[in-house]
Design goal:
Helix content is 34%, strand content 26%. With 396 residues, it is an alpha/beta fold. It has a 9-stranded mixed beta sheet with strand order 3-2-1-4-5-7-6-8-9. Strands 11-12-10-13-16-15-14 form a 7-stranded mixed beta sheet. The longest helix is centred in the first third of the chain and has 17 residues.
């Protein structure tokens, strides 16, 4: 069993800190096979620190730059929020008392604490509590109180009207990923009646793979759902639940680290909007991944005056450029075949996208003999007449 205090003293010694800097680009497997004498007493533990630090370099740069940070295992870093997504969550909550009931690495807890008079970090794993005790002070969050308890145990002791944050573990005992709330730990569905009784507001973080409709059924309802992407990669889905949530949930679609605006819709409104399908016009539009994840395929049309290419082709078209569109836009040059594409694009260099097309983007790229890159996009799609087309376009 790891003696955390003894290992941490070793970790922050000058010789080890120098080793970690020099070994940053070294293959961990090489270190395992032929470890330097310095690290042999704590080989596996130190290699874990090295891997975790690498994972934090771009995700958590404020952690990475501090030499004395005591990282949790690499999987915790991999599953943690980034600085960007943590700061976004901090815009959603404020109040007197915050309880992060699944403290973990503590990234979200620290970000959220900025808007509360008192913040409580709750974590059942003693090793994570020990590391957070060190790291919160290094990062300037000395005021956060630590509770080495389970979510279930602390719920009965909460003060009235506390604000709760919960990020349930999404891995089963066999390490397979799981997505339903009822399968996660803690079991949000089972605890929800007590949570609603105790808390004034609850924010729950879920996997980007979660099914929104199924999640809403499990939770009964939520005031808001926030689908959070970073540079068009969906990172997490957040459920904001007041004590008495409304019947219809607003879905907020966010694409962080871009200039794209937030898009807001509801599933109930989505069902009432008629399909507006039609032929390709001058401009093609590809909504960001948060909108697609939210299933707001029709809601975006009336807001921006768009026609959809086909029911299952989630591309849109118009005869003009659209200002402040939450996604990408392409100017349509022409419809092409393999033969005519070579005439219009002699260098045969373009990015390839497929939407509701018989083959994948990589297969279409190979079929057309294209190399990847440049300002042109070749888009394979199925149109409103159920015909396949290949379009040569240019990114706007």
């Amino acid at each position: 069993m790891l003696d955390a205090q003894e290992f941490y003293r070793f970790l922050i010694s000058d010789a080890v800190k120098k080793f970690l800097k020099e070994a940053e680009k070294t293959d961990p497997n090489r270190l395992r096979l032929n470890p330097p004498k310095l690290i042999r007493p704590w080989k596996e533990e130190l290699i874990e620190q090295l891997i975790a630090r690498k994972k934090a370099k771009t995700k958590l740069p404020n952690w990475y730059v501090l030499e004395n940070i005591f990282f949790p295992p690499p999987l915790s870093v991999e599953q943690s929020s980034s600085n960007l997504t943590a700061q976004y969550k901090a815009t959603l909550l404020q109040g007197q008392n915050l309880y992060d009931l699944t403290g973990g690495m503590g990234v979200d807890c620290m970000a959220l604490s900025q808007n509360f008079k008192q913040t409580h970090y709750v974590e059942k794993e003693s090793s994570l509590c020990q590391r957070f005790e060190i790291n919160k002070d290094l990062l300037g969050f000395e005021h956060i109180q630590i509770h080495h308890q389970t979510t279930e145990d602390i719920l009965n002791d909460l003060p009235p009207n506390a604000v709760l944050y919960i990020d349930p573990a999404r891995r089963a005992q066999n390490q397979n990923r799981i997505f339903r709330f009822a399968d996660c730990s803690p079991n949000i569905v089972m605890l929800l009646p007590l949570i609603r009784h105790k808390a004034s507001l609850v924010l729950i973080k879920a996997s980007p793979m979660i099914d929104l409709s199924q999640a809403l059924q499990e939770l009964s309802s939520a005031a808001e759902i926030h689908v959070v992407s970073v540079r068009n990669e969906c990172k997490e889905v957040l459920f904001l639940i007041p004590k008495h949530p409304p019947m219809n949930s607003e879905i907020h679609c966010i694409n962080l680290d871009t200039t794209q605006p937030k898009f807001i819709g509801t599933l109930s409104t989505e069902k009432t909007i008629p399909d507006q399908l039609g032929p390709v016009q001058k401009i093609l539009l590809d909504p960001n991944v948060s909108i697609l994840k939210a299933g707001l395929f029709k809601s975006i049309q009336p807001v921006y005056g768009l026609i959809k290419i086909a029911q299952h082709t989630h591309l849109y078209t118009t005869d003009r450029r659209v200002k402040n569109f939450p996604g990408r836009q392409f100017e349509v040059i022409s419809e092409v075949t393999k033969k005519t594409l070579k005439q219009q694009l002699p260098q045969l260099k373009a990015n390839v996208i497929t939407k509701n097309y018989p083959i994948s983007a990589s297969a279409l790229q190979e079929k057309l003999g294209l190399s990847n890159g440049g300002e042109y996009f070749v888009i394979g799609l199925r149109d409103h007449q159920d015909k396949t087309k290949i379009l040569l376009t240019k990114a706007i």
